[in-house]
Design brief:
The chain is an alpha+beta fold. Helices cover about 45% and strands about 20% of the residues.
Length: about 140
């Protein structure tokens, strides 16, 4: 199968990490009773839902539900990778700039995808914090 011109340009203009995370769908799943759940929708209509699985205030796994472009998928996966293994208080501090740096080649006009991903993560953490301590 031959690549389209757009696909070839995408692969030629992006880092290996960006390409891998843009097409990684391993985290796409709906979680029943997550420890924390957050969601956000950008002006372009892309949506990210984040579900957290935690143990002793440490994020063990991040599950994603995404409706959006490859950059939204890459940013959501990047936030998940940056958050896993961190405490709740560390993960809430992940910034869109950190996400863009982690991906190495996020286009400037897609920076809103990094903002959307970090927003959804913050919402999931705030939901986690609202729950009774016995569930943490």
């Amino acid at each position: 199968m031959e690549l389209t011109k757009e696909q070839k340009e995408f692969f030629d203009n992006h880092s290996q990490k960006m390409i891998e995370l843009a097409y990684d769908f391993d985290r796409h799943e709906k979680v029943f009773r997550p420890d924390g759940f957050g969601m956000g929708t950008s002006d372009c209509g892309d949506t990210i839902a984040v579900s957290l699985t935690t143990m002793k205030k440490i994020i063990q796994f991040v599950s994603l539900e995404i409706e959006g472009c490859v950059y939204t998928n890459a940013c959501a996966n990047a936030v998940a990778q940056l958050a896993e293994g961190r405490t709740i208080d560390e993960a809430i501090q992940i910034t869109p700039e950190q996400v863009a740096n982690y991906l190495e080649s996020l286009p400037h006009d897609s920076f809103h995808c990094a903002e959307l991903a970090t927003h959804a993560m913050v919402q999931a953490i705030l939901d986690y914090k609202r729950k009774p301590v016995t569930n943490h």
